[in-house]
Amino acid sequence: MIVTLQLIFGYLFWKKPAKNKMSNTERTFIAIKPDGVQRGLVGKIIQRFEEKGFKLVAMKMIQASQAHLEEHYADLSKKPFFPGLVKYMGSGPVVAMVWEGLGVVKTGRVMLGETDPAKSLPGTIRGDYCIHVGRNICHGSDAVDSANKEIKLWFKDAELSDYKSCESDWLYE
Ligand code: DAT
Ligand code: MG
Fold first, then answer.
1. 132 is catalytic
2. What's the pLDDT band for 22 if we cut at 50, 70, 90?
3. What ligand has the least distance to the C-alpha of 133?
4. How much is the pTM?
5. Is the CB of 33 under 6 A from ligand 1?
6. Ligand whose nearest atom lies closest to the CA of 108
């Protein structure tokens, strides 16, 4: 009897766990690739994320090792372009960043455009500033899970700044 009551109450008051709940503190990993740095596009790319309202949480310039890049692109290790991709990404410094905000992973990808710049609409970063898929100037995490993994790979916890942006009350309801 008690078990039956427990089951009925449990069913009535059970709240579905909030899956994919959006959070203002979602984070993504964005990197300006060596071609973006060489072509003087660092300021323009940062400006787009700043003007959108996202919060800069971490940033550094770093020339990544082959091992580091192989780990970063591990999912693509079987692709024919993988060796060239790792070589290009390690050919010069990149500007590695963490940006924070509501839906920043998905919106960040929209702001970047398609992987192939030829398929990227004008108004997107890749649509406006590059031509070839093998030189597409910026990286952005493709999901919240991969973002968290990439942030851990590129940054130590102490490198992530914890502060309240003075804009936040005007960006969010
Ligand atoms: P994205 O960077 O849009 O997440 P991805 O993860 O599939 O795209 O690939 C990682 C990078 O590899 C991409 O930014 C550019 C390079 N790449 C992808 N497809 C390629 C191809 N067909 N030829 C050359 N480089 C490619
Ligand atoms: Mg990717």
1. no
2. confident
3. 1
4. 0.90
5. no
6. 1
